[in-house]
């Protein structure tokens, strides 16, 4: 074995006994101190003597041999090889073994310095290594603030005096080892003074980029970064690259000034003060594309959005200028026309070339001004792109997220999104985060908006490298962005670029920032913009001349002027509001036929058997085994299908038709109430198995995904919404652990699910099952349906269902509360078997999962043809009283009934039991509204005609101010008006009185309240 290899391994074994690795390890200084060691470690107070080391560190050489070798040396130093003699002599003199190893390695590499001499010099610093290592935190001293307002004193931790060093130590020599050989210091001299080392460290770490990566515990990751930071020379761009950067900077700056001149009174949330973002992003895209990226999804807030749309994504300038002028698309011709949104919320997509000659698909997600809410949406969309393009290595599809400094540190969804970065079913192989750090959040000073030195400190929890960069150094911004792209492609993990800049104007262009930041804005008014700064730099370097700058200025101005003129006559074309995956799907103005959702009995049985199969020898838990045996029996007999089995059949049949099914949320694999068991675990080996991943031969890996999520609602629901945006041929579901947990995701419900189609022309079929206390009223309140207007119904098309398409297509989303497993089965399948997509909220039950009466026969899932005047098997928006046949469109009148009770969900079964107890089966009819939105006006009016003499009552469990009462009351009264029934001032109600809480916390009180409301509903 070569001595150099031996010594490296020896040093590693010795220092491998260290108990703890400092978070400040793996910097350049570790090469000074002990290159082979795990730097920054705290030594074991009782280190094992060198001769007692295991023989594993030396190939073929036992510890016994070493002991004998040492004994021979001590008896007669000349009896051993001179290298061993030097080694043992060094140890006797107190020189650390790792220093000896490093010295010999350097000597074998050509160093002219005696190994023992070099080791002795290095040993001077070994005793001080822990103290000196702490000095390498250069980002604290980097020149990051273009305003020069950050007057924080140098941290005491960076003062050499704190660690016992004084001026006289600056000229002491240190052995540099292989650190020097990498070229960090020039001339490859292995011995350097501390003064030289510190100066070179300042040059590398204390310029206009502050590299923050010492918190990363992975040595290889840190070494990779260090090798790209600690180069022999400063990173320099060629004149050609500098001219390219200048051109990109010109477009960035001149776009903002052009808008400011042409639309002086308009809000645009301009990029002035961070114009370097555009050259940085374009360099990032170029570098990423060179390394294999083919598609990039971007998400960002409003700051600088228009500039990014124009100069990065390349949205046509005439279209942007037209939107400023208020031109709106013409409706008609099948085109969808919604409410639209402000111009700095809109997104777009574009295929653009890059400097490498490759093309990349760029898309910028539309999103509201809810700051960081788009973060998980982007990650979900990227993950879906990776699935559909078979990008398992995550090389070809990437996400870039832009942030503000205040929101990155202040919004909890940022951490929720970061926390997904390494989760198996949520990772996208790293997201590149760019923070436009204008050092003020609207009007709030950073000192009052965060508790950490940097706005990016939250990213340290994920061990992401953070590149702080001065926003007035365009080359540094470009370099940082390129390095971020390289990191993401190499390590498939998140990275942050923190562009420290400023905001030249207020929060918007008509805001007055000096109200709250007078000193900052006095400074800003005196600053030249970065475009002029860079022009001067290139003039001084002789790269450009004044005439070159004028030519560039005229070129950009000419194009913008021509585009502005073209905007005057620009007519927006039909929106490309669906990607290629969505072609053929109808807009709300295009009628879609209602389709049956039943499946042939043979397919149902085949799928049913598959979802109860486990590998031979797989040891199920006895409780799960009982569940699977019961499911098999349900399939065999065709009777008693329960909720969990019906759901599994829906998933399995959709999979068999080639669709993708993805279910996520907290504890969804088993199900919060142990009803699903989609993933089972071997009780002996601990291995897991997912039957629905093996429904048919050749099933694509990941075609069925069920995944327990992190304990997050906002972030995970946003992720799944982004996932569902990508492709309509997928059933994407999120399930809240309990209904009230969904409250934590309210921003996604409010800003994306309920309004995304009308604002941004983006359909979405995301489905959200929820459990008890789900605050049904909140979702119903957001339904954009007119309660006073009955949709036109063509009863001649009753059996085809064609008349229903228009109503459900025009509404923003659907709300359902099912009472039977079969209806839940059809509801899920209906999400896919349509020519359009709508978000669906399902009030999933707890009580009905095992309720003895909440069962369905397999015939209710079976495919039934329409050839005998019988409606095909599909979702029932309303279930008639069991005394009638809901297969007939015109059931006979029931004039003897005194009361017609409308209800929804599990309460039906309690009302039914109460009615039996009261003996009012022939007087009180119970009708279930399975779909609350869109409201089934046609079916409710049918029931009113069927019970002409009955009083109308709504029953619910929730307090009056919650639940569906206020939603259905006016709609039922509208139906009564259409049927010429007397309209009461207030619709009769059986339920709890208004209350601040969803329910009492006392079981006995709850039971009394429940009995009272049931009695009030069924007794006449």
From TrEMBL:
Q: Which SMART domains match?
A: Transket_pyr
Transketolase-like pyrimidine-binding domain segment(s): 641-851
Name of this chain's protein: 2-oxoglutarate dehydrogenase, mitochondrial
Where this protein primarily resides, as one coarse class? Answer: mitochondrion
| Catalytic activity as recorded in UniProt | N(6)-[(R)-lipoyl]-L-lysyl-[protein] + 2-oxoglutarate + H(+) = N(6)-[(R)-S(8)-succinyldihydrolipoyl]-L-lysyl-[protein] + CO2
Which InterPro entries does UniProt cross-reference here? 2-oxogl_dehyd_N, 2oxoglutarate_DH_E1, DH_E1, KGD_C_sf, ODO-1/KGD_C, THDP-binding, Transketolase-like_Pyr-bd
Which Gene3D superfamilies does the record associate with it? Answer: 3.40.50.12470, 3.40.50.970, Multifunctional 2-oxoglutarate metabolism enzyme, C-terminal domain, TPP helical domain
Q: Does the keyword Transport apply?
A: no
| Organism lineage string | Eukaryota, Viridiplantae, Chlorophyta, core chlorophytes, Trebouxiophyceae
Protein's cellular compartments: Mitochondrion
> Which cofactors are reported in the record for this sequence?
Mg(2+); thiamine diphosphate
The protein's superkingdom reads Eukaryota
As recorded in UniProt, its EC number(s) are: 1.2.4.2
Similarity section: Belongs to the alpha-ketoglutarate dehydrogenase family.
Annotated GO molecular function terms are: metal ion binding; oxoglutarate dehydrogenase (succinyl-transferring) activity; thiamine pyrophosphate binding
What Gene Ontology terms for biological process does this UniProt record contain? Answer: tricarboxylic acid cycle
Q: Which UniProt keywords apply?
A: Magnesium, Metal-binding, Mitochondrion, Oxidoreductase, Thiamine pyrophosphate, Transit peptide
Record's function text: The 2-oxoglutarate dehydrogenase complex catalyzes the overall conversion of 2-oxoglutarate to succinyl-CoA and CO(2). It contains multiple copies of three enzymatic components: 2-oxoglutarate dehydrogenase (E1), dihydrolipoamide succinyltransferase (E2) and lipoamide dehydrogenase (E3).
Name the GO cellular-component terms. mitochondrion; oxoglutarate dehydrogenase complex
């Amino acid at each position: 074995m070569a001595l150099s290899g031996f010594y490296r391994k020896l040093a590693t074994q010795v220092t491998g006994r260290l108990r703890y690795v400092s978070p400040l390890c793996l910097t350049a200084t570790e090469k000074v101190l002990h290159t082979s060691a795990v730097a920054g470690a705290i030594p074991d107070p009782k280190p094992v003597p060198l001769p007692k080391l295991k023989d594993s560190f030396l190939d073929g050489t036992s510890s016994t041999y070493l002991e004998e070798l040492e004994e021979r040396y001590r008896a007669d130093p000349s009896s051993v090889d001179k290298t061993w003699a030097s080694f043992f002599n060094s140890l006797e003199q107190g020189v650390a073994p790792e220093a000896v190893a490093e010295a010999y390695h350097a000597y074998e590499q050509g160093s002219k310095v005696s190994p023992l001499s070099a080791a002795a010099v290095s040993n001077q610093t070994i005793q001080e290594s822990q103290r000196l290592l702490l000095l390498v935190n250069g980002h604290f001293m980097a020149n990051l603030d273009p305003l020069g307002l950050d007057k924080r004193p140098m941290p005491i931790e960076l003062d050499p005096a704190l660690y016992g060093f004084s001026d006289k130590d600056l000229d002491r020599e240190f052995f540099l080892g292989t650190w020097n050989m990498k070229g960090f210091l020039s001339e490859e001299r292995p011995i350097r003074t501390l003064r030289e080392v510190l100066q070179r460290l300042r040059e590398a770490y204390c310029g206009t980029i502050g590299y923050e990566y010492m918190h990363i515990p992975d040595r290889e990751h840190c070494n990779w970064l260090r090798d790209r930071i600690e180069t022999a020379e400063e990173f320099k761009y060629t004149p050609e690259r500098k001219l390219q950067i200048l051109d990109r900077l010109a477009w960035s700056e001149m776009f903002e000034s052009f808008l400011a001149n042409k639309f002086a009174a308009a809000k645009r949330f301009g990029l002035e003060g961070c114009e370097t973002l555009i050259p940085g992003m374009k360099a990032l895209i170029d570098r990423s594309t060179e390394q294999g990226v083919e598609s990039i999804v971007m998400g960002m807030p409003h700051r600088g959005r228009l500039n990014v749309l124009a100069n990065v994504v390349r949205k046509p300038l005439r279209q942007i200028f037209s939107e400023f002028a208020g031109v709106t698309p013409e409706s008609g011709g099948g085109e969808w026309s919604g409410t639209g949104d402000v111009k700095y919320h809109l997104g777009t997509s574009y295929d653009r070339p890059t400097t490498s000659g490759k093309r990349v698909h760029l898309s910028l997600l539309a999103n509201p001004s809810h700051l960081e809410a788009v973060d998980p949406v982007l990650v979900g969309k990227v993950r879906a792109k990776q699935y559909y393009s078979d990008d398992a290595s995550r090389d070809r599809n990437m996400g870039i997220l832009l942030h503000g400094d205040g929101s990155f540190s202040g919004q909890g969804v940022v951490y929720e999104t970061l926390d997904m970065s390494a989760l198996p079913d949520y990772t996208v192989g790293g997201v590149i985060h760019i923070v436009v750090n204008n050092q003020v959040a609207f009007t709030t000073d950073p000192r009052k908006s965060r508790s950490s030195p940097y706005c990016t400190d939250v990213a340290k929890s994920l061990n992401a490298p953070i590149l702080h960069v001065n926003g007035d150094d365009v080359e540094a911004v470009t370099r940082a962005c390129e390095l971020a792209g390289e990191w993401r492609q190499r390590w498939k993990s998140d990275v942050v670029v923190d562009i420290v800049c400023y905001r030249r104007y207020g929060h918007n262009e008509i805001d007055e920032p000096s109200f709250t930041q007078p000193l900052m804005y006095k400074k800003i008014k005196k600053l030249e913009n970065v475009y002029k700064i860079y022009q001067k730099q290139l003039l001084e370097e002789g790269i450009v001349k004044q005439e070159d700058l004028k030519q560039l200025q005229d070129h950009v101005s000419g194009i913008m002027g021509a585009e502005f003129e073209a905007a005057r006559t620009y007519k927006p074309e039909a929106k490309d509001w669906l990607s290629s995956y969505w072609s053929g799907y109808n807009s709300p103005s295009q009628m879609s036929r209602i389709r049956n959702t039943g499946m042939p009995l043979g397919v149902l049985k085949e799928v049913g058997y598959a979802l109860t199969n486990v590998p031979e020898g797989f040891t199920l838990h006895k409780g799960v085994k009982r569940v699977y045996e019961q499911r098999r029996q349900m399939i065999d007999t065709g009777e008693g299908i329960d909720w969990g089995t019906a759901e599994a059949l829906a998933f399995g049949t959709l999979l068999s038709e080639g669709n993708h099914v993805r279910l996520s949320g907290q504890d969804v694999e088993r199900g919060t109430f142990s009803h699903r068991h989609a993933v089972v675990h071997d009780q002996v080996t601990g291995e897991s198995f997912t039957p629905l991943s093996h429904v048919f031969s050749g099933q694509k890996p990941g075609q069925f995904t069920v995944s327990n999520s992190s304990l997050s609602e906002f972030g995970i629901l946003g992720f799944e919404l982004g996932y569902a945006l990508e492709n309509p041929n997928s059933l994407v579901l999120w399930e809240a652990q309990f209904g009230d947990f969904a409250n934590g995701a309210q921003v996604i419900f409010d800003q994306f699910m309920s309004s995304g189609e009308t604002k941004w022309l983006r359909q979405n079929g995301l489905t959200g099952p929820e459990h008890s206390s789900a605050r049904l009223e909140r979702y119903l309140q957001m339904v954009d349906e007119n309660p006073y207007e009955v949709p036109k119904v063509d009863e001649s098309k009753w059996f085809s269902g064609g008349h229903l398409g228009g109503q459900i297509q025009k509404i923003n989303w659907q709300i359902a509360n099912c009472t039977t497993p079969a209806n839940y089965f059809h509801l899920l399948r209906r999400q896919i078997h349509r020519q359009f997509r709508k978000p669906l909220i399902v009030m999933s039950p707890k009580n009905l999962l095992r309720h003895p009466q909440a069962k369905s026969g397999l015939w209710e899932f079976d495919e039934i043809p329409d050839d005998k005047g019988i409606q095909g098997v599909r979702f029932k928006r309303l279930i008639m009283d069991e005394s009638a046949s809901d297969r007939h469109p015109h059931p006979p009148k029931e004039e003897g009934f005194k009361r017609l009770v409308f209800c929804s969900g599990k309460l039906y079964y309690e009302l039914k039991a109460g009615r039996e107890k009261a003996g009012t089966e022939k007087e009180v009819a119970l009708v279930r509204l399975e779909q609350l939105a869109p409201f089934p006006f046609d079916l409710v009016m049918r029931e009113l005609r069927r019970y002409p003499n009955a009083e109308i009552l709504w029953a619910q469990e929730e307090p009056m101010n919650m639940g569906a009462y206020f939603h259905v009351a006016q709609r039922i009264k509208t139906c009564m008006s259409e049927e010429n029934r007397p309209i009461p001032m207030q619709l009769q109600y059986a339920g709890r009185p208004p209350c601040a809480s969803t329910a009492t916390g006392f079981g006995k009180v709850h039971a009394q309240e429940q009995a009272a409301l049931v009695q009030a509903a069924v007794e006449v």
